[in-house]
């Protein structure tokens, strides 16, 4: 399955020559006019498949200059290109904002062809987040916009992309119909890139239908075109080698399959395509397992897990941040409804005021008073309408956030189960013995442990957001609570031979919600274990200061980079691997901050890279709430 961005250009010698030529033209055109905007936009677009950083540099310069010149076509093209840059960055939702701005301008300019291009790119975004119904909806809209343009290249891509949406929805016959239409048009107009894409897509759908001979024929046609064309994308070639590898694998032609996956990996590594690399590492892991090369299998499986996790983790924190926005928006739905009712009421008042002005025309003073009152009401209505419009826009965007978030969660929760099933399949087929199973079991066990931790934190977080925690403060022994948490993590502590010191004094009483503080301590101690090397030291202590009790969880681990410290308690920070490659969940410290704030406390940290970290919690000493003791005179 190969889906295309309409306006992307091939990364080839021909493209490099064109890039060099455009760079030269730009240097010779210093004048800040619309001509420079057009050159900047062309350069920005040409970097889509290669360097997104260069795309953004040229795109932002084109946007800034076109805004100064009030050059609408230049603005729209810059918005579209910048949207492509964010689209390439793991479907960053910021892309939709840029595409929306471009779409509004192109529509106002009656530019149907570029309107179709933007609609296609929005559809491509929804395809990346696995919302195939929305993808198909936008692709069909784009095709209807482009039909009258006569631009065969655009129509060829759109027909193929519509087929992709049907293929991903498992409607293979429908997908095949659109792929054949795309192929016929590309052949008729001699569009080599369109022919390659159509053959690749037909190979993909034939593979899924288990028509292996037919799929192989389509792959060979692509490779034949490669032998006679200089204008060929490496990404297309990597895709074809991956498909051929899967065909040989299903036919149990394992040596040929390995050769194809290796070829694909070499190309994917050269162009930096993590998706193909991840697929190929997993396929090579299966081939090594079948061959009995369990050292090689473990190496490829480790590479697959590392790369596959990175594809999710790159975008996970953006998604979590947007998920928080979604909850905040839902909390404002009631306020939104109230504003709508008030708006209707004020609209009625405005209508009555208009009538009153006619009736009260007899007096200039009364007319003046009515006009002033009307002006004030109008301003209120406009302000409230703006609030409603902004909130509605946020709510519309949140549908995308929901689908994308659950796609991420689905990956993290399903991945270890898939791994176990794969191992059991090999065991059941007699292709692994007990000793060989023991080689790969630790990696799967570690992945499952991480998944349980992620699930635990997600359940806690979703309960807090959807239902809210009941705040039940009581007096409890802090040392005892810390001891219980240490016992619960003892297996991880022993595995790394850590020394964990509980230096909280006996009978240290705290007045707070015990369950919340237990969750906070568990997360902080767990983090300290992850980021402390073998035989390291972790210390939990407490002291009083003014009217607060201060709790400290200290380690001598790898510390936190200075650039990450300001955002460590938010959803914008990324997770890193521990000293034994343990994975974090990305939301534990956010939960800690929320729970401590619910207890009227504060949380902060001090850390030095390679020296360790100290996490502090302050909670108020509520003496009045302490249980009273019976005084005895002596």
Low-pLDDT residue spans = 7-11, 314-331, 623-634
The end-to-end distance, rounded to whole angstroms, is: 88 Å
- Helicity level: 55-70%
Major sheet: order of its strands? Answer: 2-4-5-7-6
What does the average pLDDT come to? 77
Q: Total strand count, please?
A: 7
Element order: H for helix, E for strand: HHHHHHHHHHHHHHHHHHEHHEEHEEHHEE
Report on the biggest sheet: 5 strands, mixed
* Count, helices: 23
- SSE-based structural type: alpha+beta
Key traits:
634 residues, single chain, alpha+beta, 23 helices, two-stranded antiparallel ribbon, disordered C terminus, five-stranded mixed β-sheet
Short recap of the structure:
Helix content is 70%, strand content 7%.
């Amino acid at each position: 399955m190969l889906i295309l961005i309409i306006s992307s250009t091939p990364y080839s010698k021909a493209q490099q020559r064109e890039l060099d030529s455009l760079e030269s033209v730009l240097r010779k055109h210093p004048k800040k006019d619309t001509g420079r905007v057009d050159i900047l936009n062309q350069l920005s677009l040409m970097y889509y498949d290669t360097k997104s950083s260069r795309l953004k540099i040229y795109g932002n310069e084109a946007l800034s200059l076109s805004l100064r010149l009030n050059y609408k076509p230049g603005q729209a093209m810059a918005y579209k290109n910048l949207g492509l840059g964010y689209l390439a960055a793991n479907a960053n939702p910021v892309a939709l904002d840029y595409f929306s701005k471009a779409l509004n301008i192109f529509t106002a300019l009656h530019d149907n062809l570029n309107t179709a291009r933007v609609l296609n790119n929005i559809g491509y975004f929804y395809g990346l987040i696995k919302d195939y119904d929305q993808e198909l909806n936008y692709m069909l809209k784009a095709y209807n916009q482009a039909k009258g343009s006569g631009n065969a290249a655009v129509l060829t891509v759109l027909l193929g992309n519509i087929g992709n949406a049907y293929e991903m929805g498992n409607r293979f016959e429908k997908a095949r119909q659109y792929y054949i239409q795309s192929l016929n048009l590309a052949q008729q107009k001699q569009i080599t890139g369109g022919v390659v894409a159509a053959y690749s897509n037909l190979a993909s759908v034939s593979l899924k239908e288990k028509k292996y001979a037919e799929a192989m024929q389509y792959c060979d046609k692509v490779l034949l075109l490669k032998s006679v064309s200089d204008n060929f994308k490496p990404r297309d070639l990597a895709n074809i080698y991956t498909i051929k590898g899967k065909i040989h694998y299903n036919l149990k032609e394992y040596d040929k399959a390995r050769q194809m996956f290796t070829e694909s990996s070499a190309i994917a590594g050269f162009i930096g395509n993590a998706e193909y690399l991840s697929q190929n590492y997993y396929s090579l892991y299966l081939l090594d397992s079948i061959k009995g090369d369990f050292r090689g299998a473990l190496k490829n499986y480790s590479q697959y897990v590392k790369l596959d996790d990175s594809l999710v983790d790159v975008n996970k924190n953006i998604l979590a941040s947007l998920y928080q926005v979604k909850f905040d928006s839902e909390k404002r739905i009631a306020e939104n409804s109230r504003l709508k009712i008030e708006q209707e009421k004020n609209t009625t008042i405005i209508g009555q005021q208009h009538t009153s002005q006619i009736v009260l025309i007899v007096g200039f003073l009364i007319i003046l008073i009515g006009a002033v009152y009307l002006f004030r009401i109008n301003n209120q209505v406009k302000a409230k309408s703006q609030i409603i419009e902004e909130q509605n826009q946020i709510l519309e965007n949140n549908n995308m956030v929901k689908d994308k978030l659950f796609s991420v969660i689905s990956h993290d929760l399903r991945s270890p189960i898939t791994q176990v099933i794969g191992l059991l399949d090999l065991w059941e087929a007699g292709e692994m013995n007990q000793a060989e199973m023991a080689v790969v079991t630790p990696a799967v066990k570690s992945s499952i442990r991480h998944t349980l931790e992620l699930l635990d934190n997600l359940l806690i977080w979703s309960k807090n957001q959807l239902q809210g925690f009941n705040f039940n403060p009581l007096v409890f022994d802090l040392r005892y609570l810390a001891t219980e948490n240490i016992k619960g993590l003892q297996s991880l502590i022993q595995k790394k031979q850590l020394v964990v010191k509980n230096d909280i004094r006996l009978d240290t009483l705290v007045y707070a919600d015990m369950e919340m503080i237990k969750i906070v301590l568990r997360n902080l101690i767990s983090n300290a274990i992850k980021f402390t090397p073998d035989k390291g030291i972790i210390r939990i202590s407490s002291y009083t200061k003014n009217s607060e009790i201060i709790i400290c969880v200290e380690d001598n681990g790898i510390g936190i980079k200075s650039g990450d410290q300001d955002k460590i308690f938010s959803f914008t920070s990324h997770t890193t691997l521990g000293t034994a490659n343990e994975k974090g969940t990305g939301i534990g410290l956010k939960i800690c901050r929320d729970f401590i704030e619910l207890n009227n406390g504060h949380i902060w940290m001090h850390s030095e890279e390679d020296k360790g970290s100290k996490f502090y919690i302050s909670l108020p000493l509520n003496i009045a709430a302490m249980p009273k003791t019976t005084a005895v005179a002596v």
